[in-house]
């Protein structure tokens, strides 16, 4: 096959290809081997799906419902290009008895539109807005695999990992933030064998590129036009976006910006010094020198004094997580949480913020009893030793690998069976960016 991302090349008999794939799929589920003619991208996805504990009889779980879904969609960057998606794909989906679907970067479906009859059929397998179709949740599928590998991909028939999806064909392409390059989600076309053609993959890829171009051309919302954007979760050196300019901050400047973003009213020199330094011997001169350097880096007019404050609104990823947690939107909060706040910082105020944010989200995830959210936390660097989360996951998804990890942690931490290990403070090894 000349293009490994295309499921069927022109001239291939879909029925014959489907029979070969079903035999290969059964061979994998029974013995773990992946024979030809399974494409490499599909074989690798099957293996990841199996390692994630997905079983062939799985069903997608609906995570976002009603008000939480509505508020999350309204806030999501891809909401701004939904009119474009509908214009480019809506008629094609409706007339061809297909579905237009858009998911976020965690594989949750945000919009599913198209032919009414096809939507009803898809609803029976929970291919509906709010359902999680990530690869780690339901195995190989076009939108979930596209965001997992960050490539446009087509999935045909028994290439899907769960059996109830194997009568469908889908093609999806990731959509990226044109400023940062991060994956925002994916746009997908789903239907029957009629989509098993290279043109459907090329089509969604072109639509995704058009969406990225459109996002780049759109002016920011007026209320946030002058706002600063601070990214400090999961990284020791925060990034500030100001006037379209990306500024990578030093560790100390990262701490200062996190604290000033937290206190828009400003902080006095004494308050900032107590918040930043454990060592009481540090003099005010040291802090003033740091602030002078920071003022030069930020440019004129952004850092005020008496008290020290940022002169423009700041939107930080930590604040987004807190805001979503405060409204009970646990899934949406977890989607933004890229790791502990400035994990290497020892500044007293930052340590308190980091612990409060991590513990708040961790507690909410345990209480939510969502196996996918628990699995995401447990397998992240900051959660890999979190016994309470692994135990909660084991109660809901008692796979052998999960139970083995619980036993291993109990042995390592010397915690008797039935005792819950105290919460960690949210610190983790610095993660590369």
From TrEMBL:
Keyword Transcription regulation tagged: yes
GO molecular function: DNA binding
Single GO biological process annotation from the record: phosphorelay signal transduction system
Alphabetical keyword list: DNA-binding, Transcription, Transcription regulation
Keyword hit for Cytoplasm: no
Pfam families (UniProt xref): GAF
Annotated stretches, region: Disordered: 411-433
Domain OmpR/PhoB-type: 244-310
Residue ranges with Basic and acidic residues bias: 422-433
Protein name (database record): Transcriptional regulator
């Amino acid at each position: 096959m000349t293009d490994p991302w295309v499921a069927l090349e022109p001239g291939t008999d879909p029925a014959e290809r489907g029979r070969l794939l079903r035999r290969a799929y059964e061979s994998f589920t029974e013995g773990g081997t992946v024979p030809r003619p399974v494409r490499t991208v599909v074989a690798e996805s099957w293996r990841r799906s199996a390692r994630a504990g997905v079983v062939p009889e799985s069903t997608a779980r609906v995570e976002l419902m009603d008000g939480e879904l509505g508020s999350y969609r309204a806030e999501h960057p891809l909401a701004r290009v939904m009119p474009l998606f509908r214009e480019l794909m809506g008629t094609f989906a409706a007339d061809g008895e297909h579905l237009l679907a858009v998911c976020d970067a965690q594989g949750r479906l945000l919009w599913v539109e198209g032919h009414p009859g096809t939507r009803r059929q898809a609803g029976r397998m929970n291919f509906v807005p709010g359902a999680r179709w990530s690869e780690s949740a339901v195995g190989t599928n076009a939108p979930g695999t596209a965001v997992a590998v960050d490539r446009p991909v087509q999935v045909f028939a028994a290439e899907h990992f769960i059996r109830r999806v194997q009568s469908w064909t889908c093609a999806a392409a990731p959509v990226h933030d044109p400023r940062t390059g991060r994956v925002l989600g994916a746009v997908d076309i789903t239907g029957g064998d009629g989509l098993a053609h290279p043109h459907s993959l090329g089509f969604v890829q072109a639509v995704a590129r058009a969406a990225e171009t459109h996002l780049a051309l759109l002016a920011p919302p007026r209320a946030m036009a002058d706002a600063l954007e601070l990214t400090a979760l999961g990284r020791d050196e925060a990034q500030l976006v100001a006037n379209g300019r990306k500024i990578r901050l030093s560790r100390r400047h990262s701490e200062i910006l996190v604290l000033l973003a937290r206190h828009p009213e400003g902080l006095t020199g004494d308050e900032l010094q107590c918040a930043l330094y454990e060592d009481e011997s540090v003099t005010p001169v040291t802090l003033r020198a740091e602030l002078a350097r920071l003022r030069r880096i930020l440019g004129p007019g952004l850092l005020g004094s008496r008290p020290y404050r940022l002169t423009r609104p700041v939107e930080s990823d930590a604040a987004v997580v807190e805001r979503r947690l405060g409204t009970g939107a646990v899934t949406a909060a977890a989607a933004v949480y890229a790791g502990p706040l400035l994990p290497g910082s020892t500044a007293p105020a930052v340590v308190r913020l980091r612990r409060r944010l991590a513990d708040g989200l961790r507690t909410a995830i345990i209480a939510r009893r969502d196996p996918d959210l628990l699995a995401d936390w447990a397998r992240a660097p900051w959660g890999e030793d979190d016994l309470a989360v692994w135990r909660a996951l084991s109660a809901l998804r008692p796979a052998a690998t999960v139970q083995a990890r619980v036993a291993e942690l109990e042995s390592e931490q010397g915690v008797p069976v039935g005792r819950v290990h105290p919460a960690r403070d949210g610190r983790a090894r610095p993660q590369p960016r």
